[in-house]
Design brief:
By secondary structure, the chain is of the alpha/beta class. The chain has 13 helices and 11 strands.
Length: about 350
C-alpha cells in the first residue's frame, strides 16, 4: 500500500509539471510512478519515504538530485535531453531513451540520491520577487518611505533578500536598477496595477538598512555545492528561470546577507521593531513546508510584532503563498501593515511571473 501511495503522489506531481510547461519532468515522473509500482530502481531509492507527507514532495527531491548529477557532468547520457545542460527534449521522439537514461542514473547513483531525499526542495525562486517587491513598495508607500529592514522566513540562500536590486518590467512600467543582472520581464499581465505604479513612482529607489533571513537548512550561494543545489531545483526546461537564478547568484557575490539556521517561530521571537525603520517580514511559498503547530507559533509572533510597532517603528507582513482555503494553484500576494486588516493585492503564477491584480 505504501508503494502505491508513493506512486500516486508521483503521478500527481507529474500532472502539476505538465500544467507548468515542464513536459520532460511530467513524462519522467509518469514513468517513475510505474517503476515504483514495479519495484524498480525508483522504488529502491525512495524506500522509507513512501508514506512521507504530501508537502515533502519526495518526487521533486529525487528530480533535484538527478538534475544536480546532470549539471555536474556525472550523467552525460541523460544530459543530452536536459535543456539546462545544453540538450533538447522532444517528447514524441525522445521519451523512451530519456527514461532509460534517467532510470540508469537512479540505479547507478543510489547512495547520492538517497542523500537528496533527506534535504528539502529549496528553489529560492527568483521570479517570486516580483510579488514580494510589489508588496514591499505598497507598504513603504503607506508609511511614507521609511528605510526598510527586510526579514525573510524560509529564505533558503537569501537571494530574494536582494530583491530591491532586481529589475521589474511590464508594459509601460519598469522599476529597479537598469543594469541589474536579474531581470523580471513581462511581470504583470495587462500592465502593472495603478497602486503599484503610484508606489513605484513615489519610491524609485528603496533604502534597505538590514537584510536578515532564516531557514532550517540555509544555503550559501557563494559555496559551489550550495549553488549547484539551487540550480538543480530549477526545472531543466525552464531556461528563463535558470537565467534569473544565474543573475541572482552573481548579485549575491556582490551583496552579502545573513541567513541563520533556525525555525521561523524561534527566529521571529528575536525580532523587534526598530525606530526610524519599517520592519517587513516576508515569505514566499514556504508555508506548506511548516507544520501546523509551528505555523500557529509563527502567527502569534507576527501578531506580537504588529502590536509592538508604532508610527516611528512600523511593522508589515508581506506574503506570496497558495491560499490555504482554495486551490493550490491560487497563489496570492497579501500585505498587512501593523494591526490593520490584511489586504489581497494580486495573484500570480506559482513562480511569480506573470502577476495580475486581484
Amino acid at each position: 500500500m505504501s508503494r502505491e501511495q508513493a506512486a500516486a503522489a508521483i503521478e500527481r506531481q507529474a500532472r502539476a509539471c505538465a500544467n507548468m510547461e515542464a513536459g520532460l519532468y511530467a513524462d519522467l515522473l509518469t514513468r517513475a510512478a510505474g517503476d515504483v509500482r514495479a519495484g524498480g530502481p525508483c522504488a529502491t531509492v525512495i524506500a522509507g519515504h513512501e508514506d512521507a507527507p504530501a508537502d515533502d514532495i519526495v518526487s521533486l527531491r529525487l528530480l533535484g538530485g538527478v538534475h544536480a548529477l546532470v549539471l555536474s557532468g556525472r550523467a552525460p547520457e541523460l544530459a543530452r535531453f536536459y535543456p539546462s545542460a545544453g540538450g533538447a527534449y522532444r517528447a514524441a521522439v525522445d521519451a523512451p531513451a530519456c527514461w532509460a537514461a534517467f532510470r540508469a542514473v537512479v540505479e547507478a547513483e543510489h547512495d547520492t540520491l538517497r542523500g537528496w531525499l533527506r534535504r528539502p526542495p529549496q528553489t529560492n525562486e527568483v521570479g517570486r520577487a516580483n510579488l514580494l517587491l510589489a508588496g514591499l513598495l505598497h507598504v513603504v508607500h503607506e508609511v511614507g518611505g521609511l528605510p526598510v529592514r527586510l526579514v525573510e522566513l524560509g529564505a533558503s540562500g537569501g537571494l530574494n533578500l536582494r530583491a530591491d536590486r532586481f529589475r521589474v518590467e511590464a508594459a509601460g512600467f519598469a522599476w529597479g536598477p537598469a543594469d541589474s543582472p536579474v531581470r523580471l520581464p513581462d511581470a504583470w499581465r495587462g500592465g502593472a496595477p495603478d497602486w503599484l505604479r503610484a508606489a513605484a513612482g513615489a519610491h524609485p529607489e528603496l533604502t534597505v538598512v538590514e537584510r536578515l533571513g532564516c531557514d532550517l537548512t540555509p544555503l550559501d550561494p557563494g559555496d559551489p555545492d550550495d549553488a549547484l543545489a539551487l540550480r538543480a531545483y530549477v526545472w531543466p526546461q525552464h531556461t528563463a528561470r535558470a537565467a534569473r537564478l544565474a543573475g541572482a547568484l552573481e548579485l549575491a557575490r556582490r551583496l552579502p546577507v545573513r541567513v541563520v539556521a533556525a525555525g521561523a517561530a524561534d527566529f521571529l521571537a528575536g525580532i523587534t521593531p526598530r525606530p526610524g525603520a519599517l520592519t517587513v517580514v516576508w515569505h514566499s511559498v514556504m508555508r506548506q513546508y511548516v507544520p501546523a503547530e509551528e505555523w500557529s507559533r509563527v502567527t502569534a509572533e507576527l501578531d506580537r510584532l504588529a502590536a509592538a510597532g508604532s508610527a516611528d517603528a512600523p511593522v508589515a507582513h508581506v506574503s506570496f503563498e497558495p491560499h490555504p482555503r482554495e486551490a493550490r494553484d491560487d497563489f496570492q500576494l497579501r500585505a498587512r501593515l501593523g494591526t490593520g486588516p490584511e489586504r489581497l493585492l494580486a495573484e500570480a503564477h506559482p513562480h511569480g511571473l506573470p502577476a495580475w491584480p486581484a
